[in-house]
Amino acid sequence: MARPRTTSDEDVLAATARALGRLGPGRLTLGAVAEETGLAPATLVQRFGSKRGLLLAFAQRAGDGARHPFEQARQDGAPPLTVLRTALTAMTADVREPEQMANHLGFLQMDIADPDFREHAAAHARTVASEIETLLREAVNTGDLAADADTGRLARSIQLAYNGGLVLWAISGEGELVDALLADIDAVLSPYVT
């Protein structure tokens, strides 16, 4: 009879996120993830097959979990624009220093260069865009945004400001990431806020 797993795959993938933030994909090893989890590298090989297998599982988890910050932010019944700000800032909760962002950008290179990773990154991007647009439509319906706001274009602009803001913050290292992101998002929204 097989022994029950004491460390779930979800725990392993959360540990992978921490190790990626610290090391980036190039320096990441199964040993580093094993150290984060308290498991042996051989256990990770059994579960995921290889470092690539682990990173693909991590990418799939990110794609599949893209709705989670939005669902969490909705639980308090806050207005749509508050939910939007809360969800987008929650997506960067683990990024505290520009070096961590640089390491995550290294993973983005894999997302762009490798079709298997790109599939998951594209799913994540589509889900985030859909969630943003849904919240913007709700904000129009509640009267928080102008009735003539093109929510599709505005959602894209917010997503671009968010992603661009991450990169600029990583380059400059100035201020708090959350403050910078909220300022960028608010600048995009301000012409439409009623």
From TrEMBL:
Q: What Pfam families does its record include?
A: TetR_C_13, TetR_N
**Which PROSITE patterns has this protein been placed in?**
HTH_TETR_2
Query: Which InterPro entries does the record associate with it?
Result: Homeodomain-like_sf (IPR009057), HTH_TetR (IPR001647), Tet_transcr_reg_TetR-rel_C_sf (IPR036271), TetR_C (IPR011075)
Record-annotated HTH tetR-type domain positions? 6-66
Q: Looking at the keywords, is Kinase present?
A: no
Q: Which UniProt keywords apply?
A: DNA-binding, Transcription, Transcription regulation
The protein in question is named TetR/AcrR family transcriptional regulator
DNA-binding region as annotated in the record: 29-48
